[in-house]
Specification:
With 472 residues, the chain is α+β, with helices and mostly antiparallel strands. It has 14 helices and 4 strands.
Length: 472
């Protein structure tokens, strides 16, 4: 009984020697299977490999921390690889056929991704674990030129030049949009002096100076007292020159034009005076009517009130003629407890003041119009006209000169400010990328191929042993 049990026990044991012997007999099979698995793994890695050229850039301009351009418009990282920029970058490819391949579908080759620092990624993961959102706006980006190794036509040098071309084209676009644009319009008054009457030219020049000063004020707020290292000039200096031009030359020539009634078209000037007189008279009549209505309403309100005081100290004797009421600030103060009365009184006072002011303007315009009408064409001293013409030409030239100086200074200031608007942190470098780590793929393929080969070898040995038992 005991011998039988011992025999069964030993029959169930695994004989390592037999296994090693079996594997030795099937060594070529095992070697073949492992070799095939390694070849397949290497082939898969090679077929999936890609040539990559990569550069790391950083954008440095005000507003980038909020992903905004200097003018407040929204920034998008795909602006860096916009179609027009890609087309210009393609000019760096000297081979015509290669250039055609790239320009046909540039987005198949060039990619952009944000660079997120390690500590930021860790913080984002920590916030995600707390079910919170962490917003990070990067200013560093990876530019990559990627092509399949199988059938790829672009050399590493071509890929590098394309990336550098993209960086240069984006920088040029930025400079054109935010640096090279003129601050002031140099040709604001081009051909205006000779084509318009003296009064219109003076008014246009006066408006031009005010416009230039307002633009310079806005720039001074941002640039402060920036001074050019080459010309030693600042925006404050140019603004002061504009104010001096307005307060001296422009005011002087304006006075001469107004006093002497200088005109290149006498009939047109007369019509302008007549039109202005007509407008003033209409406005004066309107204000007088407004004052009369306000007085009438004031009288009605006052007659209904219970106050026992006379506001008609200035009325004509024997009547309540409203046109004779003397309205002044004392009465307004006494009636201030009644809002409706005070409002009517204020309106009447304002209308009367405006009407009297228009009346004064009317008198002066009538005198000017009479003087112009009495004068005979060409009767004025020609020297005055020549002086005014030269003065206006001088002012126009000075305005253009100051505008050009402001534009040059502005561009110099912005070029210094945005000198490193696109900074290359990592110069383009080329390498090969794989879908997975090649070493890891080969190692796993070797292990799995070996396990599969051992299993198949042992299985075949088992089948071979069964066949032998059947034949016995």
């Amino acid at each position: 009984m005991g011998d039988s049990e011992d025999r069964e026990y030993y029959d169930d044991e695994i004989d390592l020697g037999e296994i090693i012997s079996a594997l030795s007999r099937r060594k070529w099979l095992i070697l073949g299977i492992v070799s095939v698995s390694l070849i397949l793994a290497i082939g898969w890695s090679i077929l999936g490999s890609r040539d990559c050229t990569e550069a790391l850039i950083q954008l440095n301009f005000s507003g980038m921390e909020k992903h905004k351009y200097p003018d407040g418009s929204q920034f998008d990282m795909y602006d860096i690889i916009a179609p027009d920029i890609m087309v210009r970058a393609a000019s760096s490819i000297t081979d015509t056929e290669h250039r055609k391949v790239f320009t046909a579908k540039p987005r198949n080759f060039v990619f952009i991704d944000p660079f997120i620092p390690f500590e930021v990624r860790e913080k984002m993961k920590a916030m995600e674990r707390e079910h919170k959102t962490y917003i990070y706006l990067p200013n560093q980006f990876y530019l990559r030129f990627i092509q399949h190794r199988q059938g790829g036509v672009f050399s590493p040098e071509e890929r590098k030049q394309v990336l550098l071309g993209i960086i240069d084209a984006y920088r040029d676009d930025f400079m054109d949009q935010f640096v090279n644009q003129p601050l002031l319009d140099v040709n604001f008054l081009k051909d205006f002096v000779t084509g318009h009457d003296y009064g219109d030219v003076y008014n246009a020049m006066d408006d031009c100076v005010d416009t230039y000063i307002s633009f310079l004020d806005a720039r001074i707020k941002k640039a402060g007292h920036y001074r050019s290292p080459t010309t030693n000039e600042s925006f404050v200096d140019i603004r002061a020159s504009l104010e001096a031009l307005k307060d001296t030359d422009l005011k002087e020539v304006g006075s001469i034009i107004t006093i002497s009634h200088l005109t290149r078209n006498r009939e047109n000037l007369i019509k302008q005076y007549q039109y202005r007189l007509k407008e003033i008279r209409k406005e004066k009549e309107k204000k007088e009517q407004e004052a009369g209505v306000a007085r009438q309403l004031l009288q009605e309100v006052w007659q209904k009130s219970s106050r026992n005081m006379s506001i008609a100290s200035g009325t004509r004797a024997g009547g309540n003629n409203i046109s004779g009421i003397m309205l002044n600030s004392d009465i307004l103060e006494k009636l201030s407890d009644k809002e409706d009365v005070a409002l009517l009184l204020k309106r009447a006072l304002d209308a009367e003041v405006k009407a009297k002011s228009l009346g004064v303007d009317e008198v002066y315009l009538e005198k000017d119009l009479a003087a112009i009408t009495r004068e005979k064409p060409g009767s004025k001293d020609r020297a005055i006209y020549n002086w005014v013409d030269k003065k206006l030409d001088f002012i126009q030239a000075k305005l253009q000169s100051l505008a050009k100086e402001a534009n040059d200074l502005n561009q110099e200031y912005l070029r210094n400010k945005f000198s490193s608007v696109v900074q290359v942190l990592e110069y383009p470098r080329s390498f090969v990328t794989y879908p997975r780590n090649p070493r890891l793929v080969i190692a796993l393929s070797f292990v799995l191929g070996l396990m599969l080969a051992i299993f198949i070898a042992l299985f075949l040995e088992y089948l071979s042993g069964r066949e032998k038992e059947k034949t016995q």
